Amino acid sequence: MSHNTFGHLFRMTTFGESHGSTIGCVVDGCPPRIPLTEADVQVWMDKRRPGQSRFTTQRKEPDTVRIVSGVVVDEATRVKVTTGAPIALLVDNVDVRSKDYGEIENQYRPGHADFTYDAKYGVRDHRGGGRSSARETAMRVAAGAIARKIVGDVRIRGALVQLGPHRIDRSRWDDAQIDENAFFCPDPGIVPAWEAYLDGVRKAGSSCGAVIEVWADGVPPGWGSPVYGKLDAELASALMGINAVKAVEIGDGMAVAAMSGEDNADEMRHGENGAPTFLSNHAGGILGGISTGQRVVARFAVKPTSSILTPRRSVDRFGAEVDVRTKGRHDPCVGIRAVPVGEAMMAIVLADAFLRHRAQVGTGAPWPFPAREPARG
Ligand SMILES: Cc1cc2nc3c(=O)[nH]c(=O)nc-3n(C[C@H](O)[C@H](O)[C@H](O)COP(=O)(O)O)c2cc1C
Predict the structure, then answer these.
(1) pLDDT in tens, 66-80
(2) With a 6 A CB cut-off, is 36 part of the ligand 1 pocket?
(3) Is the bond preceding residue 227 a cis peptide, omega within 30 degrees?
């Protein structure tokens, strides 16, 4: 049994290795007649693409995406639309330097999946980390672009809120700043300090971790399927499944442990059209595994990049003790490029939740409740 597929009605299967010729994904379950062009996908690929600043890996991958199935030009509108058939997307790897990985063919890099892949399969593509490489996350971003089209008016965003030990000042949060710096940082005041800090980390050949926040506005109440398809559980699984992620929080997350019941439970009042409105959002927009209609909020922490210049102690697959020296090009903090990946995973979870919600109960607005029909029989 293998597990390269994610989702239920919206299903994405990814394939490919870091230094193979091509990576790709197949998205199955996308509804028909949704306008979809390569440009719609490329705009998100470009956010994750490596080599865009001195703070990310210098591997130069254009990540040009090709859609090879599942779309057709609609005769009436002359617009390319989905057909309902599987959508296959391909991206060529063009900047591989496999010789950088020659020495580690038989060595286990600390913090990497080398040992566990060998322990499980007895064989692995060691070049650039093979299948365990975050190169795979490019295809999550591609699938996420299609998911965004399915959820329509739902707006999904992400930002870096902590770099190493340095947290943003949330009182200075400005959405408009997120795309204006190399970090996806919403606090312009901390950017110079982050630049200086990460320059120091990079020049020392070291690395650092980060915390990323992702959120979705416009999710109506009702998405998510109790009890084994809870929206928060699926979000946690999706975000935890990203390379290097070691913790996920929904809403106030770990901080709820120190709160009182009075402070934590989000109070309610009547809003417009009889729809309840919440006076706070400690729950992160999810109650009982179902969206409340508030902003859906999650955070995740990534560990410091394992590939660093300092030699690290390890063993090889023949039992010898070795010092592993990292060659190749690496992100000094993977958190920056994890922002668009986190957004994509949230989009995929929400698209899947929306399609399942529509399949079970339709899309009628829940408020105001219709008068109850008398029970039959
Ligand atoms: C966008 C992104 C880029 C990454 N780039 C690197 C990298 O350049 N060097 C590295 O050592 N790890 C990198 N990683 C993390 C590794 O892929 C990951 O730590 C490794 O495969 C082991 O898996 P695990 O940390 O999930 O257990 C990256 C992760 C993400 C999300």
Answers:
(1) 999 999 999 999 999
(2) no
(3) yes
